[in-house]
Design a protein that fits this description.
Layout lengths: L10 H14 L4 H12 L3 H10 L3 H6 L14 E2 L2 E2 L6 H17 L4 H4 L3
Helix pairs in contact: 1-3, 1-5, 2-5
């Protein structure tokens, strides 16, 4: 079975939308980067290398340096679907990312977003 179409989209093509969403609510690009790095284990440098390479979401998550074990604590609804109930592992990773960006834009504290 072929993966969902979104898996083949480059992270770089969606990244500006994450930034815009956060900045519209008074948050910063640095906070978006911090959360993406927290989730995937990327450093600031490797994150930007992946963006420059136009890495797909599938490759971005499959080759992430160290997916954060605390990500399984991310709960809630994204696009009308409960994140913790998503069966496809790749789609769940994508929705974890969407959820933490949503939480950032809603003003949630970084420590709470990171489940610290």
């Amino acid at each position: 079975m072929a993966g969902h179409r979104v898996f083949s989209i480059s992270v770089a093509s969606v990244y500006p939308h994450y930034i815009t969403k956060a900045e519209k609510k008074g948050r910063t690009k640095a906070e978006v980067d911090e959360l993406i790095c927290w989730l995937t284990g990327h450093s600031q440098q490797t994150l930007h290398e992946e963006l420059e390479k136009k890495t797909t979401f599938e490759d971005f998550f499959n080759h992430a340096p160290q997916l954060n074990p605390a990500r399984s604590l991310i709960k809630g609804v994204v696009c009308g679907i409960r994140v913790e109930e998503i069966e496809d592992p790749m789609m769940r990773e994508l929705r974890y990312l969407d959820k933490i960006i949503d939480e950032l834009a809603k003003g949630k504290a970084m420590e709470k977003i990171k489940r610290s």
